[in-house]
Amino acid sequence: MAGLGTSVDNIISIRDLHMRFGTHVIYDGLDLDVKKGEILGIVGGSGQGKSVMMRCITGILTPASGIIAVFGQDISRLSKNQRKKLDAHWGILFQDGALFSALTVMQNIVLPMKIHLSLPDRLMEELAMLRLKMVGLPLEAMNKYPSELSGGMRKRVGLARALSLDPDLLFLDEPTAGLDPIGAASFDNLILRLQKTLGLTVYMVTHDQDTIFKTCDRVAVLADKKIVRTGSPSELHENPGHPWIEDYFCGERARAAVDNLARSKVL
Questions:
Q1: What confidence tens digit (pLDDT) does each residue in 135-146 have?
Q2: How far is CA 82 from CA 75, 173, 187, in A?
Q3: DSSP label at residue 50
Q4: Which of 5, 103, 166, 265 sits between 20 and 30 A of 31, alpha carbons compared?
Q5: CA atoms of 267 and 265, how far apart (whole Å)
Q6: d(C-alpha 98, C-alpha 136), whole Å
Q7: What's the per-residue H, E or C state across 129-196?
């Protein structure tokens, strides 16, 4: 990994990433570091590749070129068995939970354990119940199917599944999309509590400015096919330095998010 700039403080390091779909260039030399123990928000305009980058990091998509290192390992150089071991160190919450509709809540949460662990069924079920409690859902939900749950409950079950292997790294793809303001605020609080309690590093794709200002330690801005700026939400709000950042972090919605955060701290 010489020259990659990895350190014990970086859980993810990306260098000179190039990605395209046909003739459409998504990234043209993108660099990014994700620090251990932080909540990093990924923001950018529509079509800039926010979710694509998460899928490149997790190996769902393969970039044209560049290096992606997770826990100091270049994922392109790993064998199938090494990749399986690495996969067990992260969890992913996709939009709307991405639960398997034919499986119950219990079966959805237990599934990663069946893939990666050799444990008795009863122990896996007990671990699944613990995860369900962690995300604030009643045990009565265990035997329900995704179609019987609200959108907010599906997201929490998806989060429980993402945490089933006790990962070090958590990927969140638009975690509050589709939730009402109260549900979104509750989910933000849940992420903050779990991140602190479990010592997680969180990589979060989001467009929700309330979530960004409330939860993110840093934000990486995707524009012009690169990460054009990283910084805390307040730094980007006070000193944007890029037209898109100014539109996003200094507009009316951003000011409302800042005001909402200030009021919550007073209360």
A1: 999 999 999 999
A2: 9, 25, 33
A3: H
A4: 166
A5: 5
A6: 19
A7: HHHHHHCCCCHHHHHCCHHHCCHHHHHHHHHHHHCCCCCCEEEEECCCCCCCHHHHHHHHHHHHHHHH
State the Cα–Cα distance between residues 219 and 105, nearest whole angstrom.
33
CA distance 90 to 216: 19
Task: Name the burial class of residue 177, with classes exposed (0-12), middle (13-18) and buried (19+) by CB atoms within 10 angstroms of its CB.
Answer: middle
Higher pLDDT, 264 or 61: 61
* Residue 207, Cβ density class (10 Å: 0-12 exposed, 13-18 middle, ≥19 buried): middle
Question: Quick check: helix, strand or coil at residue 217?
Answer: coil
CA distance 124 to 132: 12
Residue at token pair 């070129």: 65
Contact 20, 47 (CB under 8 A): no
Given a contact cutoff of 8 angstroms between Cβ atoms, the answer to whether 26 and 190 are in contact is: no
- Give residue-wise pLDDT tens across range 15-35: 999 999 999 999 999 999 999
Phi, psi angles (nearest 5°) of residue 45: -70, 170
Strand, coil or helix: what is 97? helix
d(Cα 13, Cα 15) in Å, to the nearest integer? 7
> What is the residue whose two structure tokens read 């990927």?
171
